[in-house]
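User: Sequence recovery, please. Input:
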């Protein structure tokens, strides 16, 4: 199932407009904050799909019945751009476990894009809900390779992916390469990838916009 948050009018679309705007992008703090706020909204929407259990909470005046999460998810983000979206998700799931994975793209002379997965810090995933976070879902390869890499830490019972912007091609790739039943949460889906595998109109390089240029 694909959940495209921008399809329903809300303040969320203001944040999308700002992360796309090349003038507002000149303020890295604003860019980071907007991605964080998008993570919070998508985390809230995603939370409606999780399992809850009835609990009793003691107030100063009595006992209240409240439905709370049955189990906390694991939030796994791809470094470095994923840190912004991760912060927003963690603001919502503040008791969640966390995982971090480094993945980078190497463009070869023949134009081929190769994705490398290196650093991995991850808790046990056995029978847990896994949220895979990456702001830009361009080709879908990074998301798929990261999932394959973290399986050494156990097999989750349910997978959600969260991205601010995705290409149509990446959505199809993720649907094909991640397990059946994976739910895809995305701010907006763009139609095109250019020759360098950047989403068009997209936003550019999310990591550079958030944290500065890299060599």
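Assistant: Recovered sequence (215 residues):
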């Amino acid at each position: 199932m694909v959940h495209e948050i921008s399809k329903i009018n809300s303040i969320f679309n203001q944040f999308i407009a700002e992360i796309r705007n090349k003038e507002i992008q000149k303020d890295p703090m604003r860019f980071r904050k907007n991605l964080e706020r998008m993570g919070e909204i998508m985390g809230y929407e995603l939370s409606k799909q999780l399992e809850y259990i009835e609990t009793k909470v003691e107030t100063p005046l009595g006992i209240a019945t409240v439905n709370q999460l049955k189990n906390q998810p694991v939030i796994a983000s791809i470094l470095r751009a994923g840190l912004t979206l991760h912060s927003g998700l963690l603001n919502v799931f503040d008791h969640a476990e966390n995982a971090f994975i480094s993945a980078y793209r190497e463009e070869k002379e023949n134009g081929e894009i190769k994705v490398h997965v290196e650093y991995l810090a991850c808790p046990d995933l056995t029978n847990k809900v896994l949220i895979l976070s990456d702001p830009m879902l361009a080709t879908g390869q990074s998301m798929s390779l990261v999932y394959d890499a973290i399986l050494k830490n156990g097999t989750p019972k349910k997978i959600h992916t969260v991205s601010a912007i995705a290409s149509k091609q990446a959505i199809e790739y993720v649907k094909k390469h991640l397990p059946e039943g994976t739910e895809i949460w995305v701010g907006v889906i763009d139609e095109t990838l250019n020759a360098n595998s950047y989403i068009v109109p997209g936003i550019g390089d999310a990591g550079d916009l958030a944290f500065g240029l890299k060599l």
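The chain has a mean pLDDT of 93.
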